[in-house]
Every structure is written in structure tokens, then in C-alpha cells.
Amino acid sequence: MAHLVFTTALGRVAHLATLPAASDALILVPLEASGLVSDATMRDYGTLAAILAGPSSEQATVGRKTLTGVTVTVDTATDRVAIDSDDITWTAPAGAAVGAVVICYDPDTGSGTDADLVPLTKHDLTWTPDGTDFTLQVADFYRATSAA
């Protein structure tokens, strides 16, 4: 489940996860452990470009991943919506330690820029790529419930 939902994405995550455009996608971006800003600061960034303009840096050696198998489940019995995707595997990754991953909505995977990517959720992760395969389980990366 999401550690943090970005202010710009409140109430929009499920909608953006189900958009059927031909060239949109959810993109997972790993961030280096060193230099991560606080959640209070990060939650107010409105684009991936804004996140990366400050002290938080992308861990580009392992690279971004496009989420596949994204499902949005509306559960009326428990009054919630859950979003899941297939697990993500990096093969023989190396580089700086990863402290978090951010899932972003990319409205145009063909020609978009980081200024177009809308950050949806941030998930803390402690991982130092050491050349061995790494699989990140992505289970219910976002869950919303109705207020009583």
C-alpha cells in the first residue's frame, strides 16, 4: 500500500490507472536513498521534474519500469478501491542504494517529458543493487476507502 499519496493525485489515482489511451502508462521511478526529501516536502511536488529538481535524485542505473498488468478493483463489500500490478524484476542491477520508488502517470509515453509525469504514490524501499536479480512485489500499491 502507498506510503505517501501526492497532493496532486488525491482522488485521481484510480481514474488515471484505468485510462485507456494508446500511449499512456504508469511508470515506476526509483529514487536514490541519499538526498531524499521528507514526505512533507515531497507530497507537494506536482511533476516528476519537480521531484528531481531538488535534492532527490533518480537512481538511473537500475532504470524506470512501466507497470504491467494493472488492475483496479472496486470492492463494494468493504467500500474500497485497490490498485495492483504485476511484480517488477530488475536483472543484475547495480548502482547507488534505492530509498524509495515513485509511481507516476505518463500521459504520453512516446514524446512526454518528466514535466508531464504526474507523481501518484511514493513507496519507501531499502535496496542496494548488488548485481543479483531483484523482484519488487507490487501488491495493492494504492488503496482508497470511503470515509464513514
Write the layout of secondary structure elements.
Layout lengths: L3 E2 L7 H5 L7 E8 L6 H4 L5 H6 L11 E2 L4 E5 L4 E5 L3 E3 L7 E9 L11 E10 L6 E3 L5 E4 L3
Antiparallel strand pairs: 1-8, 2-3, 2-7, 4-5, 5-10, 6-9, 7-8
What does this structure look like?
This protein is mainly beta and 148 residues long. Helix content is 10%, strand content 34%. It has helices at 13-17, 39-42, 48-53; strands spanning 4-5, 25-32, 65-66, 71-75, 80-84, 88-90, 98-106, 118-127, 134-136, 142-145. Strand 4 (71-75) and strand 5 (80-84) form a beta hairpin. The protein is globular and about 45 Å long.
Please describe the structure with a list of short key phrases separated by commas or semicolons.
five-stranded antiparallel beta sheet, mainly beta, 10% helix, 148 residues, 10 strands, 3 helices
Which residues sit in consecutive blocks of at least 5 with pLDDT less than 50? none
- The H/E string reads EHEHHEEEEEEEE
Determine the structural class based on helices, strands and strand pairing: mainly beta
What strand line-up does the widest sheet have? 1-8-7-2-3
Summarize the structure.
With 148 residues, this protein is mainly β. The protein is 10% helix and 34% strand.
